[in-house]
Every structure is written in structure tokens, then in C-alpha cells.
Amino acid sequence: MERQALLEHAAQPGGREPAPPGLELVQAFVNTVDREHGPDLLDEIQGLREWLHLRGITGQEVAIGATELQRARDIREGIRELLVANNGGQADEAALQRLDAGLDGAETTLRFSGGRPRLTPARSGFDGAIATIAVEIVHAIAEGRWGRLKACPGVNCQWAFYDRSKNQAATWCSMQVCGGRAKAASYYRRRQSG
């Protein structure tokens, strides 16, 4: 996948629609890396800065150094583990601990204007950007939509996708790609053992 497609969150395997507003931000953040073919926007400070700016979370001048870049990677991979669990897998506890540590400083404020309670970032800059992503997760959990955001179980994939099926039974980012590979591998194993 090309770098620009990752920045814009333009590609969805299998022609899936992106997650609804709010959760789409979380989905796009997790999908800042193409684990199978590259690139990874969080390999460099400029990639993270561009992604945040393009999403309207920060300005281009946001202060980001090596520490913030590592926090962003830890947060992304921790969220991915939560999405693995949403798809019936087991989240890695060490990754969840790094997620918790990465979220330190991402403070929020409770607001009631607009007719319903909402959490909002209490700071600007990098911590405010990370709080914005975390707030969307909390809102999705409260609204019952969180379980529909999943990570593909494909070993080299783990692409975040939104499950729009009635019974929330979608497993793969794309049946044509990852699902097809899994079926072919299973068939091959059966043939070899039979």
C-alpha cells in the first residue's frame, strides 16, 4: 500500500466501508501501517505529524520527538490488541500495559453542552491528539459500537476493519484475501495429514 493511501485512510480491503465517524479515527490510526507490504507512517516523526495534521487533530507545528513517536507506536499496537480481542483473540497483556503507559498525559474533561455528556481532550498538542483518539474509544464503548471494530486475524495483516454484519460475525478484513489464504492453508494441511 502506498504511503498516501495510509495517510488518507483511502484503502479498505474487500471494499468495506470505513468505520462510522469517531471510530473511523481510531481505525485510521491503527491502520497507519501496512504490516504485509509496508510502509509504516510511525517509522518517522514526520509521518506521525502529517497523519495528525491531515486528520485535523493538530497543526503541523506540534512538538513531536522520539518519545512521542514511541508512545504513538505503543498506543497504536495496544489498540490493535484490543481489536484482536474484539475478534475473539487474546490481547497481549504487555502491549496493553504499554498502551496504558502511552496514554499517560492524555487527560480529558467532561462537558455537558450539546445535550449529552462528552469527554473532550484537556490539553492540546500531542497529548491532546492522543486523548482525542482515546475519547473516541470510550464513546464507542458507551454507545455499544466498540465490539464491531476488529483486527483481521491474518498473521501478516491485522488490518482494522468495521464489522457491519447483523450478527457481528465477520472475521477477516477481506474474504478474498486473508480469508481465502486461511481456507487454502487449512485445505493444504488437511490434504497433507489425510
Structure, explained:
With 194 residues, the chain is mainly alpha-helical. Helix content is 48%, strand content 7%. The protein contains seven helices and four strands, in the order αααααββαββα. It has helices spanning 3-8, 23-30, 45-54, 66-86, 93-102, 125-143, 175-193, and strands spanning 108-111, 118-121, 149-151, 160-162. A two-stranded antiparallel sheet has the order 1-2. Strands 3-4 form a two-stranded antiparallel ribbon. Helix 2 (23-30) packs across helix 6 and helix 4 crosses helix 5 (93-102). The longest helix is centred in the middle third of the chain and has 21 residues, at 66-86.
The quaternary state of the protein chains shown equals: single chain
Which H/E pattern describes the elements? Answer: HHHHHEEHEEH
Number of domains: 1
Overall, the morphology is: globular
Number of strands: 4
* Widest sheet, order of strands: 1-2
Low-confidence stretches: none
Mean pLDDT: 91
> How far do the termini sit from each other?
38 Å
Question: What is the architecture at the second tier of CATH?
Answer: Orthogonal Bundle
Number of helices: 7
Radius of gyration, CA atoms, in whole angstroms: 17 Å
**CATH topology (fold) name:** Jann2411-like fold
Structural class by secondary-structure content: mainly alpha
Strand content: 5-15%
Task: Classify the helix fraction into a percent range.
Answer: 40-55%
